[in-house]
Structure formats: structure tokens, C-alpha cells
Amino acid sequence: MDPSPNPFNPSVLTVEDCCTKITQLLESAHLHYGHGANNAQSEALWIVSKQLGISPTEALDLGDKPLSTKMTQDAINIAQQRISRREPLAYLLGEAWLMGIPFDCTPQSIIPRSFIAELIVHGELDPWLPADGKVLDLCTGNGSLAILTALHYPDLHITASDLSLPALALAARNVERHHVNNQIDVFHGDLWNALPDTEEDHRFDLIICNPPYVNEASMRALPPEYQAEPREALAGGLNGMDIITRIIAGAADYLNERGALVMEIGNEYEYFHQAFPHIPAIWLEVSAGDQQVCIILAEDLQK
Questions:
Q1: CATH code that applies to domain 15-93
Q2: pTM for this prediction
Q3: Torsion sign over Cα 65, 70, 73, 77
Q4: pLDDT, tens digit, for every residue of 102-130?
Q5: What's the helix, strand, coil split of the chain in %, to 5?
Q6: 99-301 placed in CATH 3.40.50.150
Q7: Cα separation of 247 and 209, whole Å?
Q8: Which residues lie below 8 Å from residue 111, measured CB to CB, with a gap of 6+?
Q9: Ranges for all domains in the chain classified under CATH 3.40.50.150
């Protein structure tokens, strides 16, 4: 009996054709998304754009462009790996995109997807970013938030810190990739222990942080794609507040008088309010709503 025909014909596929076929393939596999792309169609475009060496956004305008046989077959192979391995696409491609900026991405670090990136790029944090100001990216991971800040505010000095040495090695690669070495200093350590001291020279106008905040029950229910990420970058304890509690306890010592702490807390809005009913957090609007990211003024952290 002849084998089943291959649904892909590498000799005739355009960008649009290939994206359509790969979308169908991914959708049939019941995968989980959320690591830079929210659905099969977006991941298909990402896979194909990688073969062209351009961003997914740029690939949108090239639907009629024919792909070489090798490009098409390589794209198909990646889609098949995505299905068989159930790993985030960013790890398979070695790259992730955040707010239109590419970052080296490996299992050494959580995949960049923080909603704080929207606030940086859209200028929502301008009131806390004076000229020649200082910013701390706490729990920096692969350095994406620190780098986005440096790219959009070239007059700022930025400190990035993390407990994970492998993550910091990846962050250093990304800092080098985007040529912001002169703006960003990288420190290793457990939260505040990573920083030299609390003297005035080491206080910040703004601290941004996307900490581990997933509660224990949610951690147990994570699909394989999320389990592929470093557990320590996700797990926040029983109610998700273990690391956040330590951050809030020490933040005032590292902020200037008019400074502020910006934190992403994901889906733990209710747990946050239960843990810190006395803190008048201001909730910021991002694409996922107004219960994902908060800002706390330095004066309110001292109460």
C-alpha cells in the first residue's frame, strides 16, 4: 500500500501556505500556548519567520513569498518537534520576541513575556524615570526588561540581578546582543542580597520585578510547556506570595524617597490583597487587564 500523501509539498508553498498548514498541524495536537504566542496561528507565523531571518511582524507582509524546499522542511520539522516534545517554541527556536525585540532564549531562564514590558515601551512609567535616573530589574531572568528599559531610555543606568547564574549568563548574552553594556550592570544573588548596600549611591528611582508568583495548586496543574521552564522562576509558594513578601519587606531600603516598585503578580490578585491589605497598590492597565501589574510608591512601602 502506498504511504499516505504528505500534506506539505515543499516545492510550492508560500509563506501563507506554510503558515496555514503548520497552523492546522499544531491545532490538531491540542498544545498549550502563552510563551510569546497565544495560539497555533501565531506560532506558525513565528516558525516560518525564523526560516526567513525576520520578525513575525515582518513576515505578515510576505504572504505570497515562496519558500525554498529547505525552509519549508525545516519549518515542518520544528512544528513536529513542538508537538512531540511539548516544549515552548521559544526554546526550540532559541529566540523569543518581546515588544518587537528579539532575545536569546534557552531553558536556562523563563521565557520573557512580562506585561511590564508594555508599560516600559508605552512610556507609562515615565513619572518615575528622571533623567540620569537609576532602575533595578529584580529577578531579571534573561535580562529582557532591563534591556527594553535601556533601549527606550538611553540616559538611565540599570542594575539587573537574579539568583540563577545560568539565567544571568543568558542575560549577559542579551545585553551584549543589544549593545547596552554601558547602561546595564548585572549582579548575582538572592533578591536584596545581590546588591552592594543600601547607601544613597545604590538607591533606585524605580524597581521593576516579575518575580516567581505561581501558587502551589496552580504549579501542580501546569501543562508540559510551562513545566519545561525553570521551576524556581515560577513557583511562589502556597499562595504565590513567598518571594513577593520578601521583595515588599526590603524594597523601601533600596528606593529613593519618591521612587516606586512595579511588580507583576499574574493571576494572584486575590492572594495579594489577602497578604497585603494595608498596602495601597495602584493597579496598572495592561493588555491582560488591570489586575496583573501593580505599582507601590516608596512612601507606602514604609508604612
A1: 1.10.8
A2: 0.92
A3: negative
A4: 999 999 999 999 999 999 999 999 999 99
A5: 40, 20, 40
A6: yes
A7: 9
A8: 35, 36, 88, 90, 91, 96, 105, 229
A9: 99-301
